[in-house]
Structure formats: structure tokens, C-alpha cells
Write a structure and sequence with these properties.
Elements lengths: L1 H11 L10 H4 L33 E5 L3 H7 E3 L3 E2 L2 H5 E3 L15 E3 L12 E3 L4 H8 L5 E6 L3 H12 L7 E6 L20 E3 L26
Parallel strand pairs: 1-3, 1-7, 4-5, 7-8
Antiparallel strand pairs: 2-9, 5-6
Helix pairs in contact: 1-5
Length: 225
């Protein structure tokens, strides 16, 4: 069962973009985080300004948490794999779709505490295999570089990983791909001559094309008591 899921995950989430795997980038040391325990963009020494210098490494998992619609329209960074946060990883507890149907088919759900969601300890699995899938996709012995629209979902995602035993020192919040909101969160698409920008084309990547996760049909739902 585990091998079957791993193969399906691998085939589903291969990165669309490829780039020049130069030895200069491959062997450049990863600088320590500014704040080893922080999960914000201000805590990371790697961001949208310098990410091009740290791509295509064997010791890094590159994560783009935007929706496939956003990736198709806006483009992406070559070498990043796509794991849409709200469409695959987690959604808020008691969330509903546009027709009022409950959304309970993500790997995890986020409970609210003191009006906040996405905190460490607030995630609950929807499937018996949810944590196994998480560990398969994101190995604990590698760096994880993550990007989204404006970096909020990266914070939620890293809090989820920390809840399940990941070391925050290896989790780098790269920041925002398309919306810049200050010094730390400048948008990657606004960088002058980004070396590994793959431009979006909604005609090549039709919206909805990647929004099915067939391997999840084999997972075992956890019945809420």
C-alpha cells in the first residue's frame, strides 16, 4: 500500500519546470536561518531575491503551495513541485465548497484556536495514512524551501510539519511569488531578470487539469467521533 501511494505521489507531483543544473548552484552551501525556530519569511536567509542561487539541489525539497489555477496563470520557479495547500494539504475545519458541501477530503483539517488557524497543534488528519503521505512527500532529513502567493500558507504548512516532528531549522519560507508586501516578501515575479522564472500560460495548463488526486481514493478516512 505504501509503495503504491509513493509511486502515485511521485508521478503526480513531478515539477513542470526544469532548469540548468549548474555545479555552482548545486554545491553552494545553504546559509543558516536568521531565526532557526521561526517560520516566517523574515526568519529565512533565503528568499525571492536570492532563491535562484539555491536551486536544483539534491538536499532540498522545493514546494509551491499555490493553486494550480494560480500556477497556470502566473507561472512558477523552475524546479519547484506543486502541492496546492488548500486543495490538497489542509483546509479549515468545517469548510464548505461553493455549493455548501463539507470539504473533508484534504490530508488534514485546521482547527481554530483563539480565532486563529494553522497553529502548531491545531492540525488533525483526515486519513489514517495522512502522516505517512506527509513524510513520503517531505523527508525530514532534507531542507524544505516553500513559496506561495504572499507566504501565509507557508507558515501554516511549516506549523503542520513542526507538529509532526520536523526540525524548523530546515524549513525555509521563501516568501511570495506574485504579491509583494514589504521588504521581506517581495514578489518573485518582480525580481529583475529572474533566472529561473517559467512564465504562466493558462492555455498550456488548463485550469482544473491537475486538481484531481486519484491516489487519495485508496486512503482510509478517519471517522470523526
Amino acid at each position: 500500500m505504501k509503495n503504491k501511494i509513493s509511486i502515485l505521489i511521485l508521478s503526480l507531483f513531478l515539477a513542470v519546470g526544469c532548469g540548468n543544473n549548474s555545479s555552482e548552484n548545486l554545491y553552494k552551501n545553504v546559509p543558516a536561518k536568521i531565526n532557526a525556530n521561526g517560520v516566517g519569511i523574515e526568519d529565512s536567509s533565503i528568499n525571492t531575491r536570492n532563491i535562484d542561487n539555491y536551486l536544483f539541489r539534491d538536499d532540498v525539497v522545493y514546494v509551491d503551495l499555490r493553486s494550480y489555477a494560480e500556477i497556470a496563470t502566473e507561472g512558477h520557479i523552475a524546479g519547484f513541485s506543486f502541492y496546492p495547500f488548500y486543495d490538497f494539504i489542509a483546509t479549515k475545519e468545517n469548510a464548505e465548497d461553493y455549493e455548501g458541501n463539507p470539504i473533508n477530503d484534504r490530508l488534514f483539517r485546521m482547527k481554530a484556536e483563539y480565532g486563529q488557524t494553522g497553529l502548531v497543534g491545531n492540525f488533525e488528519p483526515n486519513y489514517e495514512e495522512s502522516v505517512m503521505v506527509l513524510n513520503d512527500l517531505f523527508p525530514k532529513d532534507k531542507y524544505i524551501f516553500a513559496i506561495t502567493i504572499s507566504c501565509n500558507e507557508v507558515t501554516y504548512f511549516f506549523n503542520l510539519l513542526i507538529q509532526y516532528g520536523y526540525n524548523p531549522a530546515y524549513l525555509y519560507n521563501i516568501g511570495g511569488f506574485s504579491i509583494g508586501t514589504g521588504f521581506y516578501n517581495i514578489a518573485y515575479v518582480n525580481i529583475e531578470n529572474p533566472k529561473y522564472l517559467v512564465k504562466g500560460n493558462s492555455y498550456l495548463y488548463p485550469i482544473g487539469q491537475f486538481e484531481t488526486f486519484d491516489f487519495m481514493k485508496d486512503l482510509t478516512p478517519i471517522t470523526k467521533v
